[in-house]
Amino acid sequence: MSTPVPGPPVLALRGVGKSFGSVRALQDVSLDLYAGEAHALAGENGAGKSTLIKTLAGVHRPDAGQVLLDGQPVAFAGPGDARDAGVAVIYQEPTLFPDLSVAENIFMGRQPRRPASRLRRIDRRAMHTEAAALFSRLGVTLNPTAPARGLSIADQQMVEIAKALSLNTRVLIMDEPTAALTPGEVNRLFAVATALRKEGAAVLFISHRLEEVFALCQRVTTLRDGRLVASELVADLTPDDLVRRMVGRHLDTLYPKAEAQIGDVALEAERLTREGVFTDVSFQVRRGEIVALAGLIGAGRTEVARAIFGVDRWDAGRVVLGGTDLPAASPTAAMAGGLALVPEDRRAQGLVMDASIERNLGLTRLRTLSHAGLMSRRRERNQAADWALRLRLKYARLSDAVAMLSGGNQQKVVLAKWLATEPKVLIVDEPTRGIDVGTKAEVHRLLSELAGRGLAVLMISSDLPEVLGMADRVLVMHEGRLVAEISRAEATEETVMSAATGQVRV
Amino acid sequence: MAESTSTPVAEAGTEPRGTARHGRPGTLRLGALVRWDTVVALLVVVVLIYGFAGVANFGSAINLSFLIGNTIAVAMVALPMTMLVVAGEVDLSVGSMVGLSSALMGALWNANWPIDYLIVFCLLAGAVGGLLNGWLVTRLGLPSLAVTIGTLAAYRGLAQIILGANAVTDFPQNYLNFGAGRIGSTFIPYTFILYAVLLIAAAVVLHATPIGRSLFAIGANREAAFFAGIRVKRLKLAMFVLTGLISALAGVIWTLHYASARYDNATGLELSVIAAVLLGGVDFDGGKGTLCGAVAGVALLGVLQNLMSLSDVSAQSQTVVTGALLVISVLGPRVARQVREVVRRRRSATAVPVATASAPDVAGDA
């Protein structure tokens, strides 16, 4: 890999700081993006990567420091300004208009017009030829007239990249673009990114997969807890060096897994099938056990959890909870049987954002919190205060809306709301997504302690270190099927990832 | 167990209380004081004072009993309507249901049914009409606005088929006395007692029972409520049935009050009800509002209309005033909330993270 001699940086940050209330998301961070160079941004969840990207993309304005474009300080008033300056962002889940065609998505808001038209009508033919030209430049075969709906995530990303190209993008930022891609799609994306880089674009690449950083990038900047750790050439680093910079501490404290007494089967799924979503999924979770359900996004893990809890129905198979069959599609029955589900999306599914902390905490236990049919506010508040204390919730008043809490504290409220039902089986879906490292460690300690008390835990997680650090057993799903069951001793990044990507069936 | 010390699930009381940040002293809780429903309630008081002091005949017992009698159907239907709107649904067929109930009452009376039976039958018909609305909304997943626009037309048509253009007026005198009479020498109609009982029941259910909590949760975030084990569809269905039932009851009362069963009784009542509920600060998107606000909304509209009639304001102008109030009522709480939000953002040290679907770790960064 040739290391280009950098000229002046195209886009740079100098001593940038950004706070949200009392939370300092970025402190004194500097970054240089050079033309013709791919730059990786490394760091754990909550390290400040998203804030940094949004600062570059004009979504956030820094509280301190400067954004430099070609060495000149600029103040982007919004994403539009950044786009006009040639900064494009490709997000993990592209944001296309599903009912419009691919070409219309690329040229949204600046469609080519017919030259002779008084009515300024859109020149569809020109739009389609231009889109086709962009795709051939990218080396992908996509039909410009096809609707965006139904495209794979990889193809949607290609549409976004084509849009970026058509805007004469000089800086291309890719936020975890490979999370949902197959290895073949990753290779195609990398080929495109490399081609763009060689044409002189600066690329900023975010990924949790270290091998991708090493395969694609020349330079890497590491953030930890909102601060700059290091900015250096990839060629000078080993993967271990990079992990140490990202984590900055012993991993043991983040994954405090205690040995637990494994007991009887608490939850069993038998040949569970939901047409077109998952097929023939069979597994057991025992008391005291933490079982991880790993796999790529879209492998069907969340869907299995939803079906077991009764939010969706299943088409075939059965679920046995504590020795008795669970009826399909009834969360109420599942809860009565001692099942709890901490859902993946805490804003949409876990919490009523506008309602207060105490109301949210009481929502799963309305019956228990009422006396003779009337809600007992005192009981509701006492339980809320009790759980807030147990989980070390940071809050001002229990009557405040949960929307006012930080992400980590919101997640604690969701956990508390479900633990308050005193479940026998707890399913947690991405329990630590998007929460800070400190809270993450607390959640892990909590899960480990609950398992130690005999709770059966099924943990869906896309965070590999979390899976490896916390699970007694790892189940791996790939394209709707359970493809591997790996013991704690045998579970490594390689064994789990190769099963998750469908390369090996264990 | 290695984790026996300092676990997160420690016994309550063994941990320092320091994690709970208490609100800064001196922070003005303006938002808690200036609530839309209290503003409307205050307006009612202001308008009443103006009426008693400045408008001739307003304070007379006969006028006050007219005022209450003319408002009571709207007030009654507003109770279940508030619950529906809180749960994020709406029923536009209530006016037609009042009419259908009235027409049914007339037709059955003509067919020589005993009055007690036919009233029970009318109430049952209301429940069935509500059940149909609720079934279409919850089981077929259709939007309630569209469904009930349909049944608005259908129930009114049914009423006309049942009774035609006739008016039935010869109900038993003791029932008519209940519908139009007053308690002793006071201005309070008998029917108001029935309303007061319903009001108290509705207030308790909405604000002090698990059902009420569930309705607010459903309206604010249907999915989260469902995930929390709340039987969303069943509860909504029950609310539609209740709305149909109360509408039919209002139809019976209407018929007795005006001593006239007609198919076109209470035409347009649904708009008055919804106007009053929204005027009372109940959010049309669901999840926010109080029954007290809805009651204040009904009272404000009722008193204003009465005052305008006494002051010889034309019916057309009255409609304009009512319409303007409705727009203000939808706008007002939103503007108030926005102002509060801005004040809170400026004051508060706590960040409200920007919701962005495309950036999974935004909340952690924020």
UniProtKB/TrEMBL annotation, chain A:
<keyword id="KW-0677">Repeat</keyword>
<keyword id="KW-0547">Nucleotide-binding</keyword>
<dbReference type="InterPro" id="IPR017871">
    <property type="entry name" value="ABC_transporter-like_CS"/>
</dbReference>
<dbReference type="InterPro" id="IPR027417">
    <property type="entry name" value="P-loop_NTPase"/>
</dbReference>
<keyword id="KW-0762">Sugar transport</keyword>
<dbReference type="InterPro" id="IPR003439">
    <property type="entry name" value="ABC_transporter-like_ATP-bd"/>
</dbReference>
<keyword id="KW-1278">Translocase</keyword>
<dbReference type="GO" id="GO:0005524">
    <property type="term" value="F:ATP binding"/>
</dbReference>
<keyword id="KW-0067">ATP-binding</keyword>
<keyword id="KW-0813">Transport</keyword>
<feature type="domain" description="ABC transporter">
    <location>
        <begin position="11"/>
        <end position="504"/>
    </location>
</feature>
<dbReference type="GO" id="GO:0005886">
    <property type="term" value="C:plasma membrane"/>
</dbReference>
<keyword id="KW-0472">Membrane</keyword>
<dbReference type="GO" id="GO:0016887">
    <property type="term" value="F:ATP hydrolysis activity"/>
</dbReference>
<dbReference type="InterPro" id="IPR003593">
    <property type="entry name" value="AAA+_ATPase"/>
</dbReference>
<keyword id="KW-1003">Cell membrane</keyword>
<dbReference type="InterPro" id="IPR050107">
    <property type="entry name" value="ABC_carbohydrate_import_ATPase"/>
</dbReference>
<protein>
    <submittedName>
        <fullName>Ribose import ATP-binding protein RbsA 1</fullName>
    </submittedName>
</protein>
<dbReference type="Pfam" id="PF00005">
    <property type="entry name" value="ABC_tran"/>
</dbReference>
UniProtKB/TrEMBL annotation, chain B:
<feature type="transmembrane region" description="Helical">
    <location>
        <begin position="320"/>
        <end position="336"/>
    </location>
</feature>
<dbReference type="InterPro" id="IPR001851">
    <property type="entry name" value="ABC_transp_permease"/>
</dbReference>
<feature type="transmembrane region" description="Helical">
    <location>
        <begin position="64"/>
        <end position="85"/>
    </location>
</feature>
<dbReference type="GO" id="GO:0005886">
    <property type="term" value="C:plasma membrane"/>
</dbReference>
<protein>
    <recommendedName>
        <fullName>Autoinducer 2 import system permease protein LsrD</fullName>
    </recommendedName>
</protein>
<keyword id="KW-0812">Transmembrane</keyword>
<dbReference type="Pfam" id="PF02653">
    <property type="entry name" value="BPD_transp_2"/>
</dbReference>
<keyword id="KW-0997">Cell inner membrane</keyword>
<feature type="region of interest" description="Disordered">
    <location>
        <begin position="1"/>
        <end position="23"/>
    </location>
</feature>
<keyword id="KW-1133">Transmembrane helix</keyword>
<feature type="transmembrane region" description="Helical">
    <location>
        <begin position="117"/>
        <end position="138"/>
    </location>
</feature>
<feature type="transmembrane region" description="Helical">
    <location>
        <begin position="39"/>
        <end position="58"/>
    </location>
</feature>
<dbReference type="GO" id="GO:0022857">
    <property type="term" value="F:transmembrane transporter activity"/>
</dbReference>
<feature type="transmembrane region" description="Helical">
    <location>
        <begin position="145"/>
        <end position="167"/>
    </location>
</feature>
<keyword id="KW-0472">Membrane</keyword>
<feature type="transmembrane region" description="Helical">
    <location>
        <begin position="237"/>
        <end position="260"/>
    </location>
</feature>
<feature type="transmembrane region" description="Helical">
    <location>
        <begin position="187"/>
        <end position="206"/>
    </location>
</feature>
<keyword id="KW-0813">Transport</keyword>
<keyword id="KW-1003">Cell membrane</keyword>
